[in-house]
Design goal:
Layout (H helix, E strand, L loop, with lengths): L4 H26 L6 E9 L2 E9 H5 L8 H14 L2 H4 E2 L6 E12 L11 H7 L9 E11 L7 E4 L1 H4 L5 E7 L4 E7 L4 E3 L5
Parallel strand pairs: 1-7
Antiparallel strand pairs: 1-2, 2-5, 3-6, 4-5, 6-9, 7-8
Length: about 200
């Protein structure tokens, strides 16, 4: 079965939206803002592996608003630099012979609404109690890896949790030619077995 990598990413993106909708429902029911949880989408097609990571800014830099001070701006740049090295964050088997082809790191939110209008930081802070999403930032990272032996991608070690102390859990959606599945990895269980997927 041959899959199109863009179609696979669209499918796992849709799965992520369903997870986000469920989390939003839980968020409304619980009435609290939960940090520490992100999403990693992985699509494997032939020798190409596409990965998409989404994490709240709070979990990676320690604050959730737009960087204002020199120290906060430095923390954002440091996080971006770490995120730009996927093979240091996600340990793939050496036998798969993977190399990084593309990396895109973006910090979204804080100063811009979805419609592109500027959002003043003071207003976002004032609205925080009324709308938990107001002024919050989120890292969106896209990776493309080329793997000489993708059949050997039987596990992933998540040094990501060592690198970012505020990160606690990831929902991992995986699509391969054989199957699609969703997993949970955490700081306590930082290894994912993909043997049945490859």
């Amino acid at each position: 079965m041959r899959i199109n990598i863009m179609t696979a990413l669209a499918v796992i993106g849709a799965l992520a939206l369903v997870s986000a909708a469920r989390a939003e429902d839980e968020h409304r029911e619980l009435g609290s803002h939960v940090h520490g949880h992100g999403t990693l989408n992985i699509a494997v097609e032939d020798k190409r592996v596409a990965m998409e990571l989404k994490m709240p800014g709070m979990d990676l830099v320690g604050f959730e608003h737009e960087a204002e001070t020199k120290e906060q701006k430095a923390a954002v740049e440091k996080a971006k630099a770490k995120l730009a090295k996927p093979l240091a964050l996600f340990k793939l088997p050496a036998s798969a012979s993977c190399s990084v082809s593309e990396v895109r790191v973006v910090l979204e939110g804080g100063d811009v609404h979805d419609d592109g209008e500027e959002n003043h930081a003071e207003q976002a802070d004032a609205d925080h109690d009324d709308d938990e999403r107001g002024g919050h930032t989120e890292f969106h990272v896209a990776y493309v890896l080329d793997c000489a032996k993708p059949a050997n991608l039987t596990s992933i070690g998540f040094d990501y949790f060592k690198t970012f102390p505020g990160a606690n859990e990831l929902t991992v959606n995986v699509v391969t030619a054989k199957a699609q599945s969703t997993y949970e990895v955490s700081r306590d269980k930082p290894t994912l077995d993909l043997g049945s997927m490859m």
